[in-house]
Amino acid sequence: EAQVTQNPRYLITVTGKKLTVTCSQNMNHEYMSWYRQDPGLGLRQIYYSMNVEVTDKGDVPEGYKVSRKEKRNFPLILESPSPNQTSLYFCASSYSSGGNQPQHFGDGTRLSIL
Amino acid sequence: GQSLEQPSEVTAVEGAIVQINCTYQTSGFYGLSWYQQHDGGAPTFLSYNALDGLEETGRFSSFLSRSDSYGYLLLQELQMKDSASYFCAVRDRGNTPLVFGKGTRLSVIA
């Protein structure tokens, strides 16, 4: 089954404790991205990757890191999480960055930073 | 940069037709997409318009007017399961991030 898999689905942690949210897709997609979703603000892009070893900042990259060492994986790293990073996070992938390419989203990761 | 405007909430009656509008401002234009998101779920792709006109997919249709920087999503024969948030999204050129509007929450009532 074609899918984007995020882990964990839920996490409660404390300020400053490094965490990684994994994202993996099995569709051989080139384009992957991370979004955060907050009430009233919609989906805001954190980072995106056009292909292996190519990553770029989105609209809200501060406090986050990503890597794209393999085509299928695109982990999101919070080196020193803070409470303002409490949010719902989505990973997405598409065949390319073309406008007509639908993005496939993972089920989301709800992070709470205390 | 890009900006998109869409109503925050819309309520409609089961069986009726509802239109969700989206206006955008972009330096370029590489198509308008629509996504649906049910509460607690992930966004799912609904439609894409690159050219002016109406695209129909079952009960859902999407319209684009590039000269007016405007599009809409039309939902016909509304069902309770259509209650969800709907997001328009644009890309101002190739190989750039997709930017989403803040979403329209549709409530379908009996």
Q: Describe the oligomeric state of these chains in a short phrase.
A: heterodimer
Helix vs. strand class of chain B? mainly beta
Tally of individual helices of chain B: 0
Gyration radius of chain A, to the nearest Å?
Answer: 13 Å
> What is the helix content of chain A?
under 10%
SSE series of chain A: EEEEEEEEEEE
Shape of chain B: globular
Poorly predicted parts of chain B: none
Please tell me the overall pLDDT of chain A: 94
Q: Would you list the SSEs of chain B in sequence order as H and E?
A: EEEEEEEEEEE
Mean pLDDT of chain B: 93
Main sheet attributes: strand count, strand direction, barrel closure of chain B: 6 strands, mixed
* Number of discrete helical segments of chain A: 0
Short account of what is shown:
The complex is a heterodimer of chains A (114) and B (110). By secondary structure, chain A is an all-beta fold.
List the helices and strands and how they pair.
The complex is a heterodimer of chains A (114) and B (110).
Chain A: E1 4-7, E2 10-13, E3 19-25, E4 31-38, E5 42-51, E6 54-57, E7 65-66, E8 76-78, E9 87-94, E10 104-105, E11 109-113
Parallel strand pairs in A: 2-11
Antiparallel strand pairs in A: 1-3, 3-8, 4-5, 4-9, 5-6, 7-8, 9-10, 9-11
Chain B: E1 3-5, E2 9-13, E3 18-25, E4 32-37, E5 44-49, E6 53-57, E7 60-65, E8 70-75, E9 84-90, E10 99-100, E11 104-109
Parallel strand pairs in B: 2-11
Antiparallel strand pairs in B: 1-3, 3-8, 4-5, 4-9, 6-7, 7-8, 9-10, 9-11
